[in-house]
Design brief:
9 helices, about 70% helix, 2 strands, about 200 residues
Length: about 200
Amino acid sequence: MSTIWQEFSKGLWKEVPPFRFVLGLCPTLAVTGKVSSALGLGCGVIFVLMVSNTLISIFKQYIPGKIRVPVFIVIIASAVTIVELMMEAYFYTLYEVLGIWIPLIVVNCLILGRAEAFARKNPVRLAVADGAGMGLGFTISLVVLATFREVIGSGTWFGLSVLPPSYIGFDLVQNPPGAFICLGLLLALINLISAKTESKRQEC
């Protein structure tokens, strides 16, 4: 298995951000009431992660250690500004729905964490793979949680009805307490699957 694939694939399961490191929970809980908003924010995070990881890896030798965090934040903020302007120009409805959560990508601890822990220490190709994998894993996590909440909460998926018209919905999962409950259930499921997988691996 190539090193690039290893760095990319770790973000899809082994180190998937919201469920393994419990990072980026504020947007995870806030935007997952609908699949469309979850996917939109996830795509924005993928872009920001890849751009910031790439630039930080390229210029790491020119960034003084004492001011590296402010420099990282400037780079991340620049990428977030691009995302915000693009959404406002081409996906205005999504831009209105996501609101403050777009600029708040800047302070998402996942992005700054990858810059500090990985991008500044590794070559560009690995930094890009890490950003893509972590971003995709984060997006998949948002979409899975949003699917659970939207289908059970309102009987729709991407705004389209997927349950019988008689289904009245379950408002709890659309509210903040329901978001915590759904996240906890998914965390428990992932830990259970991981434990069983590890047990089978040890038996072999």
